[in-house]
Amino acid sequence: MTAEKKILCIGAGYVGGPTMAMIAFKSPRSRVTVVDINPERIAAWNSSDLPIYEPGLDKLVAATRGRNLFFSTDIKAGIQENDIIFVSVNTPTKTFGHGAGMAADLQHWEKTARQILEYSESSKIVIEKSTLPVKTALAMERILNSRENGVRFDVLSNPEFLAEGTAIRDLEQPDRILIGSRETPGGLKARETLVEIYAEWVPREKIITSNIWSSELSKLVANAFLAQRISSINAISALCEKTEADVTEVAYAVGMDSRIGSRFLNASVGFGGSCFAKDILNLVYLCRHYGLDEVADYWESVVHINRYQQERFIRNMLGAMFNTLAGKKICLWGFAFKANTGDTRESPAIFIARRLLEEQARIVVSDPKALANARADLAGVEGQISFIEDPVQAAEGCHAIAILTEWDIYRDIDFRQIFRVMTQPAFLFDGRNILDHRRCFSIGFNVYPIGKPPLTHF
Ligand code: UDX
Fold first, then answer.
1. Quick one: which of 415, 428, 425 has its CA closest to 454?
2. Phi-psi label, residue 184: left if phi above 0, alpha if psi -120 to 50, beta otherwise
3. How many angstroms separate the most distant Cα atoms in the chain?
4. Is the CB of 335 inside a 6 Å radius of any atom of ligand 1?
5. Which residue has the least CA distance to atom 13 on ligand 1?
6. How would DSSP label each residue in 364-396?
7. What pLDDT digit, counting tens, does each position of 39-98 carry?
8. How far is 272 from 252, CA to CA, in rounded Å?
9. 287 noted as active-site residue
10. What are phi and psi of 447, to 5 degrees?
11. pLDDT, tens only, 216-261
């Protein structure tokens, strides 16, 4: 069968892999190839042990791989053989030079643009899937159109809004698909080609189109708004702890206002993940670049509150445990930045673990999916660290448990048994407000939720 659409994705990561699997699944007449420079990653995509954990992903890959979904390291052939190219390489925050800690590091992205130019023998539609600073498409166009060889490139922006842990559902039933293009005949035609791909399963009214800069900016702004809601409720959680208000009740009451809405109002130990901090810092950098310092300060405060919330968690632990953690054994339940993923990027757990070790506590890290990443994150950090997957075993002999990820398994644990194996007085610091606090208190724990009065036996 000749494929109707020949699609390539450069970058086999969290976004590229699942998104292409969904396109291949929903568009059986298309042929989708995913390439990456990392041979181990590609080998994993070709094995039964996929490189990322995402509920439902294995089924999707099993249904499509070898049929119309292929994983390969041959970037050159990929570019030559396909005419619709998604670019989904990582764009982390720059760690060096001008803009370090703020701006996006675009080296992988630019290298990819140059490879597309070098290997293309026919015209291509190039789609930015990675989150990029506004106006990156312009730079992409300039690189791609730097040669006069009759090959035409149309650049589109199509940001991905999927969240980890629910990626497959988000891909299958997205709130919206956003496609930004140039308003030229070529740009509009390219845009229509991409609309057709998504229209295989997404209702037309949910596929929205815009100019290319609006599309690029919308992705940053969407993440900034979501993160801002979390920082807003986390800031209020600090006030709740002082005033005996209960942040869950406040969030519920506030969220009932249909203008505000109830989602993303769970107070927590802080947000993590590869996108929020990175995208806000990117937005802040852009604002500063354009001389909009007040706007930059406004958004930067979202990141400041997030760090403040993590430091506050440590201060609360210190205060509760008689102002010293030295030599005490503290069990961290959860290391992933959220439940249902093994991803630990920017996880508050990394900061919390380091701070506890600075206080000379001994830590036991437990997580059902993220222990390998946790080991890597804490490699070289001084102090006594052990890793135990089973949460009950991990809690043995500990003075405190800090819940850092909202894994369901922690809700259903036998807390009587946990209480018996811990050092007394036993402390629970619920950084996700997922436990039945009254029940844990009645078993004997001293319980410290986020944004609620603590329940203590002293
Ligand atoms: C986010 C965006 O949701 C997604 O649209 C974008 O494409 C990528 O960034 P993700 O990072 O996968 O997705 O996770 P998300 O579910 O948004 O959670 C981010 C962080 O916020 C997690 O650490 C989570 O635990 C925390 N969070 C979320 C809260 O602390 N409180 C909440 O109410 C919601």
1. 428
2. beta
3. 79
4. no
5. 163
6. EEE-SS-HHHHHHHHTT--S-EEE-SSHHHHHT
7. 999 999 999 999 988 899 999 999 999 999 999 999 999 999 999 999 999 887 888 888
8. 23
9. no
10. -110, 130
11. 999 999 999 999 999 999 999 999 999 999 999 999 999 999 999 9
Structure tokens at 44: 């994993």
How far is residue 107's CA from residue 339's CA, in Å, rounded to a whole number?
Answer: 31
Ligand 1 lined by 266 (C-beta under 6 Å): yes
| Per-residue pLDDT tens digits for 400-454 | 999 999 999 999 999 999 999 999 999 999 999 999 999 999 999 999 999 999 9
Assess contact for 355 and 316: CB atoms under 8 A.
no
DSSP codes joined into one string, 275-333:
SHHHHHHHHHHHHHHTT-HHHHHHHHHHHHHHHHHHHHHHHHHHHHTTT--TT-EEEEE
Number of H helices, E strands in the chain: 17, 14
- C-alpha distances in Å from residue 388, one per residue of 323, 350, 354, 366, 422: 27, 16, 18, 5, 15
Instruction: Calculate helix-pair angle for 136-144, 212-243, nearest 10 degrees.
Output: 150
